[in-house]
Amino acid sequence: MANEMTVLLPKQGASITQLRRRAPLRVDVAGGGPVGLAFACTLKSLLGDQVVLRVYDRRWMRRDGRVVWRGPAEGNNRREQVVTLQSNVWAALPVAVQQRLFTPGKFSEMWPLGPDSPESKGRPRNIKIRWIEDALLDLAQDSHGIELVPEAYAVPARWDDRHVLAIADGARSATRDALSSHFGTPSRELFSVDGSPLDERVLGIRVNAKAPDEHTVPLTVAQNRFLFNSLGGGFINMRLTAEEASEIVALGECGPVACIGKFGCSMRPSPGGRFVCDRHRAVFKPSVDKLSYLWPRILDGLRFFGVGVADVVGINSFTLGMQQMSKFTAQLAPSTFGFLLGDAANSLHFWPGRGLNTGLKSALSLAVNLQKRWRGKAFRAADFAQHEGIMQQLQYREKSRAWTTMLMPDSEGVPRGIEDRIREGLQGPYDRAALVSTLFSRVLEIKKRLGDRMGSLATDEWYYGRINALDVRTLKVMVESGAWITREIGGEEVEVPSAVPAAVEPVRRGLSLVS
Description:
By secondary structure, the protein is of the alpha+beta class. Helices cover 35% and strands 19% of the residues. It is globular and about 75 Å long.
């Protein structure tokens, strides 16, 4: 026995650590969007060769030896939205991920400091979802050696040697549904009014912006009808009443076409002032209907932020609602645990700007938990008590915040749905001078409050010009919708572990200076 040890150690260059090296953690990820890829890249950064990762997504394909995103020609409409990452979140990502995401020209800083973006970490950063997906897909295969599988994840008959399944395939997660006996069925009861789930229909208007990004912040915060998130362009999101939503129709040669809002199609500008779907060749009805009630309101929203119809790149529509999950962690087999991440775990109303932040927090929490608990042998349920607790905190904190923005309290503290506020604003009587004065005073108050928490803002005259140019009905809707209820939805944020070692902290701070 002693002779065998002599052969194994010095003569073959093996160390005691190498001899005792544990077997790698084997992880499957269902869904390769921003959260799924961020989780995979973070876990690989933390565990290196001690983890073997496979990520599945049917929106990918192979081309010239690489895995790339499918485009419209392959039936996949890429997401073009701009999202805001809070500094507590982006600063906790591994340095390699930060360096890949935050390259010059790919992000901006337009929103102010706040509880989830303290001055010590830096300001929130705007970044395009499409860029996050492209950058992390390249990182996964260029330097991280993650196996990318361009097909939908299928729940296996046996789990064999898989230790972890991370489910990050969206709000309508097929993987979560296939495993409902383990995770339970999501409930919409808590997010209902008079027994009916509360949903909101939103129009997303992608534009090329003319004004500096920061200038539009007080305009956005002063009302709840339009939200502009910009990156030298970006999206103006418009909340609709049911009557307005009924106009969201795509017209083909033979009548209405199931298109916008159902398949994620975007209506793009076409000669003659029309907006047409690339895929179905259907026309966005409000853009050609001279009797449209909605189209003038859309043009007013553009005018409010200093852009015109010629600056519109595309229009799409989507429905927002929420549901409650009973748990986020489940033991799928004696040696396999499953976890819900991202929208599969907590699909949120985006108005408070916490959707992707919550998804990345869930990814960071699980990645750091796995790093701390993996010892080369089967996990126990107790290993994930801390992670499950963080997920439950996130659900309560972020869904409570989002619900309050859907059913905002009025001056008497009575909840009022945003649709009721908009509908009331569209009805007379109208006092234009009073409405302009009210909205302008609100903008100036917000400008003053934000002044020392962000960069330079526009002049008072610029803001007055934006407000005074609006139709009186749009003005009343903005006044009735109210300013952002920052106090009601503010407060302490859920903290998650960082994937950045303390010794690397100075490097991370250096990254925050890139612009």
